[in-house]
């Protein structure tokens, strides 16, 4: 199978949005070494784009976001190749997590194994109502590693154990109830809902959104008692640029205009 990464840029009035589509020439999009290398390169290119506001990560077609790892590759792997696969997967997950702007996973059809790990690395996940999720690695003699370590922070330890130890798939409604995804919509509404979500992100001040993502990643790696200090530093750093003053003055001006209209109407 030939790896394929398609990155499309869309210029909106509020800023630039990138869409990365993952594709493989098989019935399901599967994650192999070549596809991970291409995805890592695409993420590196985007990381330096100062005009970028958000990224959408999607799978080609309706059958899968990512249908797991490339089993044909892994079936022929030796220890070194298997370790290389895991290291590359971890690297891609980390590249998503450290990308300066929010990454939204667009989930349709199956999201399995390594695909679910990539989805967990994203900042937000929106799914079609027919989407299905599974971590079946144990049934293939493999432990769940790398991005699977993000699951407890999303769904808790008990549900993580159930997902990993049983390998049973869950549907989109269960994923929403567990906190694995943030929104579920009918398949026909997926693009429209995705546009709304991107629009809400773009409504934030660009610098503040980037700081907030970086700060939340710090929070994840710190104990609760340690989380205040980075937040205080990030808050103070906002005032090095014009964004807070400009936004606050606009809000105040709008409130004053609204109050004046109320007084006039009486």
From TrEMBL:
| Keywords tagged on the record | Lyase
Keyword Lyase tagged: yes
Q: Which BP terms does GO give this entry?
A: fatty acid beta-oxidation
Task: Cite a single GO MF annotation.
Answer: enoyl-CoA hydratase activity
The reply on keyword Lyase is yes
Q: Name one Pfam family in it.
A: ECH_1
Its EC top class is lyase
Instruction: Give the EC number(s) under which this enzyme is classified.
Output: 4.2.1.17
Homology family:
Belongs to the enoyl-CoA hydratase/isomerase family.
What this protein is called in its record is Enoyl-CoA hydratase
């Amino acid at each position: 199978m030939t790896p394929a990464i398609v990155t499309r840029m869309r210029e909106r009035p509020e800023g630039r949005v990138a869409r990365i589509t993952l594709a493989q020439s098989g019935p399901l999009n599967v994650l192999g070494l070549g596809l991970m290398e291409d995805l890592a390169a695409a993420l590196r290119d985007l990381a330096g784009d100062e005009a970028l506001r958000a990224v959408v990560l999607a799978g080609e077609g309706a059958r899968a976001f990512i249908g797991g790892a490339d089993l044909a590759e892994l079936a022929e792997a030796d220890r070194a190749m298997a370790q290389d696969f895991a290291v590359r997967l971890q690297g891609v997950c980390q590249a998503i997590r450290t990308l300066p702007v929010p990454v939204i996973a667009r989930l349709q059809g199956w999201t399995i194994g390594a695909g679910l790990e990539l989805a967990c690395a994203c900042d937000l996940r929106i799914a079609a109502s027919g989407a299905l999720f599974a971590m079946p690695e144990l049934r293939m003699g493999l432990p769940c590693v790398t991005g699977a370590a993000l699951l407890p922070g999303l769904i808790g330890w008990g549900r993580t154990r159930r997902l990993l130890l049983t390998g049973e798939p869950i549907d989109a409604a269960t994923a929403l109830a567990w906190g694995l995804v943030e929104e579920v919509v009918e398949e026909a509404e997926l693009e429209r809902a995705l546009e709304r979500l991107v629009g809400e992100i773009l409504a934030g001040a660009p610098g503040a959104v980037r700081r907030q993502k970086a700060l939340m990643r710090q929070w994840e790696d710190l104990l609760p008692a340690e989380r205040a200090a980075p937040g205080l530093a990030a808050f103070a750093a906002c005032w090095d640029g014009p964004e807070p003053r400009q936004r606050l003055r606009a809000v105040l001006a709008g409130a004053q205009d609204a109050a004046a209209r109320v007084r006039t109407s009486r």
